[in-house]
Every structure is written in C-alpha cells, then in structure tokens.
Predict the structure.
Amino acid sequence: MTGKELVFAALRREMTPRVPWVPFTGVHIASLRGLTARELLNSTDFLVLCGEEAHRRYQADGQPVVFDLQIEAEMLGCKLRWADDAPPAIVSHPLANGYDQLKKLKIPSPEDGRLPVILAAMEKLKRTVGQDTALYGLVVGPFTLALHLRGTNLFLDMFDQPATIERLMDFCSQVVETVAGYYIDAGMDVIAVVDPMISQISVQHFRQFVSQHATNIFDFIRQKGAYSSFFVCGDATSVLAAMAECGPDGLSVDENVDMVYAKAIADQYNVSYGGNISLTTVMLHGDQVDNMQSALQLIDQVDGPGFILSPGCDMPFNVKPENVSAITLTVFDPEKARMFVANSDTKTTAAAVDLDMPDYDDLPRPLIEVVTLDSATCPPCKYMVDATREVAKLVPGGVDWVEHKITERENVVRMQRLGVVAIPTIVINGRPVFASHIPDMATYLREITEVIEK
C-alpha cells in the first residue's frame, strides 16, 4: 500500500499493515531550507520547495500543505502580527465593538488574500508528491473563526446574545465550507477542520452553537469526495464525543487528551482518530530516543483499526529534523526502534534545570502566570493571554502577570512544579485556577479578588 492508501484505509477504519504517519509539519518546513515562517507562508514557490523537502526527509504517509489558522480571518479583516519562527497571530478583531460590521463581511473568493498562493502550491504539490502521499488541506473551524472576528467577548455573548452568535456561526460556517471547497478542487485528499477554541467551551455550548454547523461542513466535504478530520487542540476530553457525533471521518487530538479515551470514543462512533506526540517535551526538547519511545508507547496503546500517528498539533519551527526522522524509522521498523531505545543510555528531556520559583506567600500583589504552548502560535493560549491582559486593567492596585511558554525548557519544569497538567492554564499566586478554560471577565476578576482578600 502507498502512504496515501494507508491514510485512506485508516480513515475508513480498516486494518492496515502498519500505522500511518502524518506529521503536521506546519512552519517547521521553512527551517529545512533556511527560510522564515513569513517567507514560507507568502510564497507558492517556497511552500512547494519546503513541502517537497519535508516529503523527501520524512517519508510521511500524509502531510499538510500549509498550517495557518489565520488565512480566513486575514481575508475577513483581521490584522496579523508576523513572526520569523511561527505562524502569524491575530491582533485585531473586526467585530470587537459590535456586530454591525457582520453584514459587510463577504465570503472569500479564490482571488482573495493569500488563497492564490496557497491554491497554486496545493496544485503543484499534488503533481509532485500527491500521487503516493495524502495531502491535507487545513481550514480554521467555525467557532475559532468566530472568535478571531469577535475577540474574547464572544464567550460572554454566548450567554447574552445567543441569536447573534448563531448568525455569526452561520457566516463562519459558510466561509469554512467555501475555502474547503477551493482546497478540494485544488487536489486536497483530506480536509482537516481545525477548531482549537472548542476545547474552551462546555459540551452544552458546543451542541448549541457548533454541532449543526460542523455536521453541515463534514457533509459538504463528503459530498465533494474528500475525507475529513475534526482537529482540536487543548483539553477537548469533555467535547470529544460531541465532536464525533458531527460525522467527521476522523478526530485528531493533542497531548491534553488521553489517547486511550480517544480510542474508546472513536470505537464507539466508528471514526478514525489521530495524535498525539508531545510538541514540546518530546519533539522540541527531546532527542531521537525520546521521539522513538513516545511513538512506540502510542502505537502499543491503541491496537486495532483507525489510528493515525501524528503530533498533537503543528510542530514548532525549531524541532530537530532528526527527531522527526526518528519517528519515521519507528513507524517503518518498530522492532528496530525498540532495540535502539532499549540499548540507549540517553536520559529523557525532563532533566531538572535550575529554576527560581516566586515566594508565593510573600508577594507584593497578586501574580498571574499563564502557562501556554506559545500565545503566538496557539489560539487558546493567545485568547487566555488576551483575557489576562484585560483583567489586569480592572484590578484595583494592579496585578503582575507573565506568560510561561513551554517551548522554553525551563518552563516545562516550571509547569511540573506548579502542578499544571493542561495547556493553557491560568495560575494565580502559585495555584492553578483555570485549566484549558478561558474565563469570562467577571469570573476571572472574582478569583483575583478572592486572592487579594485572603
């Protein structure tokens, strides 16, 4: 079987001779050719050059052409902040001051924004690597797109303006379907609907505001003749079954979700499932042995049909290529990888580092620590940092706050010492308070006030 055939069989929940391997390489592929993320994401030639290089090096069964959840939002008026080693970040929201502008937003055409660059790259990669490799087209999910357009006020609006949210979700779903259609016409085999912000809402709100829209999107993708995946970052445990009910061919989760639980949900709803190699502690900070060991542990946990091995989300820019290649070796020859791991003396990446922790019992004012993957690349992390920035303005006497990105090795240790188990998490005076959940301003302020009054 070709790699593409393996991915398709897994998405149909058929038994495969080995586990399919789909690295979500994202802007990491720019590093393979000495380019920046910004150069990559604005050039057809660079997307093709780097995509072909990733294909040659990693021999993946499936790969994305581009991983950028801001493409649709940029076309709708969101301003971006660009970085050399990460996808761009949203820095403005067209509906931040209200919904009057919603009627002025237009469904994108193939000529809008960066779509011409991306569609041309998809068509070229389809010809050069797409015969034996499943190509993934990634679209932003409707709820995350709604948050990009409205900002964090969206969470309060779900209580105060549900009818208006429904109008916004209708529009966002039309955008997602339209862009997905362009990608399928350009040759994409699998459309991954990447909706990280659904990990931040309750299953009740998911069913109220997301379920029907997601179901319609997956029906549309199926009618267009492509496969689909519902891709979520963050602790989506509570909504995973509701996601499966929407009818995607597969689910894809990150390290916040127990893969054994994901398998149980996938088995129950007869869908494929994928994940969830750790992006930081393993892929970024680890070595080849760590990556082999993580891949082997996942493969051993989930026997049976439907599993696709992949990173938990898009890989950080600076992941060592040899770490990714180590996973490829593990997939193609797991017994050789087991021997390599067994005979290795290499320590894992969680080695202790010198770290000065604050004296939480003697702080001049409240300290908020936001533990993130990286707010520049992770939408739930960005909006948690945004909420913290805003709530800090409301606290009499002020607060101190800081973001701890676990892409930095010392913050992996800090996360462990704080007892943080989900990303992102808000820690107030050393105590994890909001884990993988962005609070509304009133709730956030109340928690800070209780700390001050103690």
